[in-house]
Amino acid sequence: MGFEAFIPSTSPPTIVEEFDLNKLISSSGNIEAGRAVFQSLEHTCVNCHVAENVGNDIGPGLSEIGKKLGKDALFEAILNPSSGISFDYEGWNITLNSGDELTGIVLSKTEAQWTIKNLLGQTVEVPVEEIFETQKMTTSLMPSGLGFLLGKDKLVDLVAYLSTLGK
User: Fold this and answer.
1) pTM greater than the 0.70 cutoff
2) 97 touches 131 (CB < 8 A)
3) 111-139 per-position pLDDT tens digit
4) Which is nearest to 167 in space by CA: 62, 79, 55, 86?
């Protein structure tokens, strides 16, 4: 099974690289290099995920992910994040009466207000009377293509690291 990534532009998509999932799974990665990939702001994992008490709590916590998912599922989750969105991490787009828009995760809803965690990790309380429209996203908040931007070696190292977490 192969995956293709595309670079967004105004011209037609360009294939960056195709990964063979079986080859990725059989590859050995460097756990310490993978930890560095995860913790690097350049590679963005820590912007949304927490592992070993490092990172931001926007997406699912990963400190136990190695005992929950095998390498195949970890590669799939990174390469195709919309293939399985974790419960309570579904994204929402909310348009306010003012025309402003919020995107994030709904933490709670009452008859009086919605509480949203936005993409910066901030909690925003929105009175229901200020909400014009809400729409549940059909794709993950995690952008697709991040695994491809890492490249094969860093991706394999990252999964080697993640697969050790919680074991």
Assistant:
1) yes
2) yes
3) 999 999 999 999 999 999 999 999 999 99
4) 62
